[in-house]
Design brief:
- The protein has 147 residues and is mainly beta.
- Helix content is 5%, strand content 27%.
- The chain starts with a strand and ends with a strand.
- This is LIM zinc-binding domain-containing protein.
Length: 147
């Protein structure tokens, strides 16, 4: 959050005019309160909640739109605590086991080559989907016999 103070003999980083009265100090730079704005939309950043990149200042929405990372599951922007796996980024709540759809309780998962599985589900054997021969299947005509 920018700090407010009274200064003199200092130039505003935005308009290059002498700072007088109430100004903002942001990372050793000074701004008139009305000059501290988002580089993209021009909205005031004087109340805080901004990002800095390459010497420019951005509101949260514009920073995310231009530089943010989206969750691989829900496509919303991620910030704060995230999970990164297999080159993708997720909100913690969005990173779930492909079988039980629950977040892994111990954050340990196994990638099978097709699925990301929690430790509980990785123990469950996988059926390959091919019908097995059963004693009630009549192989001659492909119909199931009912006894």
């Amino acid at each position: 959050m920018p700090s407010r103070r009274r200064c003199c003999k200092t130039l505003c980083q935005s308009c290059k005019k002498k700072c007088s009265g109430e100004v903002l100090r942001v990372q050793d730079k000074y701004f008139h309160t009305q000059c501290f704005k988002c580089k993209v939309c021009g909205n005031s950043l004087a109340q805080g909640g901004f990002f800095s990149k390459d010497g420019a200042y951005y509101c949260t929405a514009d920073y995310q739109r231009n530089f943010g990372t989206k969750c691989a599951t829900c496509q919303d922007y991620v910030e704060g605590e995230v999970v990164t796996a297999l080159g993708k980024t997720y909100h913690k709540k969005c990173f779930t086991c492909d079988r039980c759809r629950q977040p892994p309780p111990d954050e340990k998962v196994t990638y099978t080559g097709k699925e990301v599985l929690c430790q509980k589900c990785v123990q469950i054997p996988v059926r390959d989907g091919t019908p097995k021969t059963s004693p009630t299947t009549n192989h001659a005509n492909g119909k199931i016999a009912v006894n």
